[in-house]
């Protein structure tokens, strides 16, 4: 039996799942690139990034060396572990649907 309580509610929200998927599969992303890829507003994206950051899943880095400040985000080791656990539960669901 699948333990649905193992689905991490912080990651489970669609926008946060999208962010975690991009950061987990492609590494560090700049805020503007995430915004363009996900089609999210500044406010919506920053809210979800803060939620993931508060959970310790995403780390923010700032680079002020250029003409414009650049903020990037990357998954932390705790975020990688949490995302893998989340995907493991999804895989168990898929296997339950296709037992053969």
From TrEMBL:
This is Winged helix DNA-binding protein. Residues 6-91 form the HTH arsR-type domain. The keyword Nucleotidyltransferase does not apply. Gene3D superfamilies: Winged helix-like DNA-binding domain superfamily/Winged helix DNA-binding domain (1.10.10.10). Keywords: DNA-binding. It comes from Prosthecobacter fusiformis. CDD domains: HTH_ARSR. InterPro entries: ArsR-like_HTH, HTH_ArsR_DNA-bd_dom, WH-like_DNA-bd_sf, WH_DNA-bd_dom, WH_DNA-bd_sf. One of its GO terms (molecular function) is DNA binding. It holds the Pfam family HTH_34. PANTHER family: BSL7504 PROTEIN (PTHR37318).
């Amino acid at each position: 039996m699948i333990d649905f309580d193992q689905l991490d509610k912080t990651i489970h929200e669609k926008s946060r799942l999208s962010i975690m998927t991009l950061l987990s599969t492609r590494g560090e992303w700049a805020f503007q690139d995430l915004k363009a890829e996900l089609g999210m507003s500044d406010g919506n994206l920053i809210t979800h990034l803060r939620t993931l950051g508060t959970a310790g899943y995403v780390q923010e880095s700032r680079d002020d060396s250029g003409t414009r400040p650049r903020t990037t985000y990357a998954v932390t080791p705790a975020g990688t572990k949490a995302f893998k656990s989340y995907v493991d539960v999804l895989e168990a669901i898929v296997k339950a649907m296709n037992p053969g």
